[in-house]
Amino acid sequence: MSQTILSIVMFILSLALCPLLPGIVNRVKAKFAGRTGQPLLQKYYDLGKLIRKDVVYSTTATWIFRACPVAVLGGALAAAALTPFGRGGALVSFQGDFLIWAGALTLARLFMILAALDAGSAFTGMGASRETWFAVLAEPAIFLAMAALAVISHEFSMTGFFLALTPEATSRHFMALLFAALALFVVSLAENARIPVDDPTTHLELTMIHEAMLLDHSGPDLAIIEYGAALKLWVMASLAVGAAVPVNIGSWWLDAGCFLVGLLVFAVLLGVVESVMARLKLNRVPQFLVGAAVLAAISVILVARSA
Q1: DSSP tag of 211
Q2: pTM here?
Q3: Is cis: bond before 220, omega within 30 of 0?
Q4: Cα Rg, the chain, nearest whole Å
Q5: pLDDT at position 206, please?
Q6: Whether the Cβ atoms of residue 286 and residue 137 lie closer than 8 Å to each other
Q7: 94: helix, coil or strand?
């Protein structure tokens, strides 16, 4: 199978399977709590139910609020197109594409924040403020982890980062890749509103962050935003898995299978973390994200020393 066809297949699989990750996380959490839990396909059921509902808009909402779901989904799709899923490479790849990748996710977040303020609710504005602050702290960890991968691979594109991770390069820079993967995992918790940074199931207005910004969205608009969030989780997980498990067997279907197994392990690990950890106090979250940046910085230092 050619590289282009494999990239298209993996991109389509990502679009189809991304709502499955939250289902796996919820089942793992249910097992820890001794419950049966929701079906694995619960997110698909929820999205279908939301699509069939009507949309209600705030009387203060402008075109920004209505454009938010499109911007969120567009940003997630752009990031997914630039993300290499396994050894197939990204659907779109060019030098410096990780800057556009970060910009696409930032644009989606910007519209979420503006829409939260546009709704005219005190709680949505509070969530937008917290989202902005934590995003500023998470971005250095992402770029430092990208810098470590760029130095290891001697490439300047996201596809190049992972395709260049041969067994020799992986064994030589094992610790650096491990720290980069840990940093990306921690950032994934913050970027996707997961415990210990945020709780996607909470309805306590004073403690919500990401969920607070969704209070005024409903119907198909909310379904689009929820799907975009699931796709973003898949994208962030793909980067962490690519750094932690740089498998290069040589067979496209074995490589794709290992990548999907890696995502399964990521979801299980995420469920374990959410089951054994409590949510951090808001004043502790910045320290948590700075710790991720420190892990990524250590990765850069290890790569520089071995170069």
Answers
A1: G
A2: 0.94
A3: no
A4: 19
A5: 64
A6: yes
A7: coil
Which tokens is 243 given?
Answer: 């750094």
Q: Print burial letters for 96-110: b (CB count within 10 Å at least 16), e (below 16).
A: ebbebbbebbebbbe
Structure-block tokens of residue 184: 């990306």
End-to-end CA separation in angstroms for the chain: 35
Structure tokens at 157: 């594109």
For the record, the structure tokens of 264 come out as 């399964």
Spatial separation of the C-alpha atoms in residues 17 and 41, rounded to whole Å: 10
Cα–Cα distance measured from residue 82 to residue 98, given in angstroms and rounded to the nearest whole number: 8
Burial of 272 (0-12, 13-18, 19+ CB in 10 A): middle
- Burial environment of residue 136 by CB neighbours within 10 A (0 to 12, 13 to 18, 19 or more): exposed
Contacts with 88 (C-beta within 8 Å, 6 or more apart), sequence order? 3, 6, 7, 9, 10, 252, 255, 256
Positions in the chain whose pLDDT score sits under 50: none
Please list, in sequence order, all residues whose beta carbon lies within 8 angstroms of the beta carbon of residue 130, skipping any fewer than 6 positions away: 209, 212, 282
